[in-house]
Give the backbone structure.
Amino acid sequence: MGKGERATTTRGAREKIKQQQAAARAQERRRRVITYTAAGVLAVAALGAGIWYGASKSQPEEAAAGLAPVTVQSDGTVVMAKSGVEKPVLDVYEDFQCPACKEAERVSGQTIKNLAAEGKAKVVYHPITIFSQEPTRSNSLRAGNAARCIADGKQWMAFHNLLFQNQPSETAEGFTNSQLLEWGKEAGVTAPDFEQCVNSGKHVQAQQSYSEKIMDEQKLTHTPTLKLNGTEVDNAVVFSPSELRDAVTKAAK
């Protein structure tokens, strides 16, 4: 794609964002409370507009020496932080089926990991299912369930990365159990009950319940959403590694 075409795409996306924001405000006035279904619809509308495309402003960072310790929590969240680091807290709300989340991971994912490895942030991943329609909803639930089947932090992170790398189309069934099991092997998952956990959908209900709870509590209408010490990070910053690093570094002072 040439520069002219890319600029046109960006302008078009920005106009669509404005339209979506106006529609969202009108919906808020009508309904006052965003339901789970509405949240999914808004997410799909935003994704269809390609809002992330023009927002990416800089190249991804190179990987640091290694990951900060990664700990899988009982509620399905995952903490990545060096020992003793409690602030600032960077919450990452993401859906494995969300194309914008895939792009955010590609562009800024390494920055997030590096910041944790440098002791500059406590990162908390919140894998959720924001979609309400098929096949995206079931795709996301299967992926979220499989991630919850992994208790080892390093293995979880490797699996997390593979899910985004192999994300299926929004219009087709994907994240099948057989695929998830294969990527589990690739990620080095050693849990003896991983296959049974994936095939039985052991954590599907927990994934769905947590998603509904956290979307309501945090008033989430789209993914990815990043919050720095509880304040939502501007979308343009999310997709700009340098700006994201600056924001987190300033919050750490």
